[in-house]
Amino acid sequence: xxxxxxxxxxxxxxxxxIEEDHTVREIKGDFFDQYExxxxxxxxxxxxxxxxxxxxxxxxxxxxxxxxxxxLKLKIPEEPLIFLKPSTAVIGHKENIIYPxxxxxxxxxxxxxxxxxNKVKNIKPKEVYENMLGYTCFNDVTARDLQKRDGQWxxxxxxxxxxxxxxxxxxxxxxxNLEIKLRQNGKVKQHSSTSKMIFKIEEIVSxxxxxxxxxxxxxxxxxxxxxxxxLQVGDVVEVEIEGIGTLTNYISx
Length: 253
Description:
This protein is mainly β. It has helices spanning 66-72, 144-150, 154-157, 201-209; strands at residues 2-8, 11-18, 23-29, 35-43, 48-50, 58-62, 81-85, 90-91, 96-98, 106-108, 110-116, 132-139, 142-143, 163-170, 179-184, 187-193, 219-221, 229-231, 236-241, 245-252.
């Protein structure tokens, strides 16, 4: 199932994507709970994509791919290294990433996002999947010079528009073996597989739940593979994940 939030005729709606004819069927209710599929159908070309969820927080992982650790010549972490991105950074598919005046180096980071379905705390790895709604594409946009200057990551990761996610939430995937790519102006810059993650989905979500309560709609993003690089104003950046789709954004002032 591919769930979507969208805007049509000035109204926000939820829906299910019908890939065969490139349309979305409107649903009544909330895809986190009970919903009814309506007859209303819209072309994907006529809607405005919205972020597929609005999290209370985004919990992200640093250094969670073997190939990225090798690229940076860094030691494999013994535990997940986590940080937070604010909900105010969230934007959706086909929206602009704003290049802040405060930075001189803006980087892309393609990542798989996990969407939490229930309010949970202290769950075991075997309980993780029953408490997840699905998966989405994510770009952990980072002001790299500020990250290095500050020595911690809050400022560099938290600017408005630095958390693009979408275009859909997809259920029923095997998340630990998905092809992941990032293209900058059509050229592949990152190309890996979630099978190269150091910590797997069930380990990550369980670990984070031992630290903080996870709310319905919260997003956990699972680290980026090798090939991280710099963005420029005017660039088109695409994160593509097998079974989910492609998240496209544009870099602007």
